[in-house]
Amino acid sequence: MNKSIKKLWIKALRSGKFKQTTGVLCDKTGYCCLGVLRSIMKPGDRQSYQGYGSLLTVAQRQQAGLRFDTCDSLADKNDAGFTFSQIADYIEARL
């Protein structure tokens, strides 16, 4: 994984700035963990991906240095009720 993006992502997940939601990258109630990643990669671009699926595009995954199965696993953790703090711990330890 891209080290600078990883550092920013972990910080954002632990910041308390983002409310957590499930099933989509972003909606009116909040973000999934991948939506947080998308937000730090393209700040101020929330409207362009509200309601979209729960995964990043190929280009976004490549920019972050993530494999599809890793993104899928993180989305599953998010939707299963893992908190952003728990997901940040996982990313820090395993990616």
Characterize this entry briefly:
By secondary structure, the chain is mainly alpha-helical.
How would you sum up this structure, described in words?
Helices cover 54% and strands 4% of the residues. The protein is mostly helical and 95 residues long. The protein has one domain (3-94).
Largest sheet: 2 strands, antiparallel
Amino- and carboxy-terminal Cα gap: 6 Å
The oligomerization state is single chain
In terms of per-residue confidence, which ranges show pLDDT below 50 for 5 or more consecutive residues? Answer: none
| Total of domains | 1
Mean of residue pLDDT values: 90
Beta-strand level of the residues, as a percent range? Answer: under 5%
Described by the principal axes of the CA atoms, the overall outline is globular
Q: Based on helices, strands and strand pairing, what is the structural class?
A: mainly alpha
State the helix count: 5
Radius of gyration: 12 Å
Q: What strand line-up does the widest sheet have? A: 1-2
> What is the number of strand segments?
2
Secondary structure: helix percent:
40-55%
How would you spell out the order of helices and strands?
Answer: HEEHHHH
